[in-house]
Design brief:
Length: 514
Amino acid sequence: MNMQKSKTKQEIDWTLTLAPLILIIFMSVILLAYPDASSNAIEFLRSIFVGDFGSFYIVFGLGVFLVSIWLAFSRFGQVKLGDLEKPRFNTFAWGAMIFTSTMAADILYWSLIEWAYYFGATPFGMENLSLAQRQDFASTYPLFHWGPIPWSFYILPAVAYGYMMYVKKRKRQTLSEACRSTIGHHADGALGKFIDIFSIVGLLAGTATTFSLATPLLSLVVSTIFGIPQSTALTIIILGVIALVYTIAVTLGLKGISKLANLCVIIFLALIAIFLFFGPTRFMIESGITGIGKLANDFFSMATWMDPLRVSGEGGSGFPQDWTVFYWAYWIAWFVATPFFIGKISEGRTIKQTILGGFTCGLLGTFTSFIVFGNFGLFHQTQGNVDAAGMLADGASPSEVILQIFQQLPISGVALVLLAVAMIAFYASTFDAITLVVAEYSLKKLEPGQEPPKSIRVFWALIFIILPIALIFNETTLTMLQTISIVAAFPLAIIMGIIIFSFIKDLINDSKTV
């Protein structure tokens, strides 16, 4: 037994395990000790990365999406990820894990409120919009921001990681290893360490944004249901409960994660059913169909709009900088872990099946959420029942607005309980997946079928809540949270580009030897 423990310790990469922890603690201390200076520094970084480099994210996003579609229908699409005769997981379990491992709690949160930010906005610089035009844009833009381009940030790296794990059979499961075909032996040196450490820190920053945005909503829901005064302490307790749930799940490995994912889908469908049954069903469905059609028609315009007039101050709104750039960066920050998980569970599928199936499962869940929850709120906005857009403009918190929207349901109490359960389950399902992957970073070598020691999984499960707690105490604004994701994502996008290039290079070279 002692020999086994010693062997486990020798397998751990202490640099990748401890360095991100030290950096995150340092960032948290700075945010807590110097809140005003931190806000000023973040605002300065925003002016650089959004103002000067915003176009980079836009072009990069469209490029990744187009490459993923090309790859699926190219001759490489028939390459199989692994030697299994049939996929490791059935289609439902596989699709459920893809949806629930990718910010599913965030999807639920933004489905309820994102449309309200767009209802009073001026996409494409159009002023004096009619009610019908505002309704169209408010129901379409969320589908764009959670549509094919951001999903490609997960799906394309996922097949690259799956190829690395199951075809190349490499023992290390890190970003530096995925870059090996381009950076060569430097993957084992200082450059490789830098890539992996920064990637983990970037992921922690991105997940902190997730927790810091949606946890206050969960806190308000719990406060409303049980009559408990809302406070920072309650939010921290809820964070602890979520961490406990996903820590237990991750110690059970992929089997536990799969069961939790299936449970999440059932809860999600139950909440969908309530909104469809008690809501304006025809309006939601028709708005959804219209939104999908408008997205298809305006896709490339939305994917390339940069609002250049904002620079001169002549009618520009800065809408793509505030939202599209933020969302592309937000999804990029998660590519450090989520695609590894998708690649891991895709053993036995071809590249084409993984790409097209991943898009189908991801978009089906995401679009359903935004069409039902988003258009429910949008209906009550257009009917004058809840002025969600006006409340946000007047400084109301998103959580308060969402609560007002839920009050429009005749069984709002039941729906709020289900929302609380769904968010906790989604959080747990998302974070147990990425915790398992990041724990694998800590191992110097990982054999096929091997999972990290439970102690390492628990260690990373606890690390994920340190920065969110600091951001909650810091009373971080939405703009600050957006900036943290955008700054962290810039170098991560470059790393993603290297990984995609290395993957395609491997495919071409390996095809020549067959």
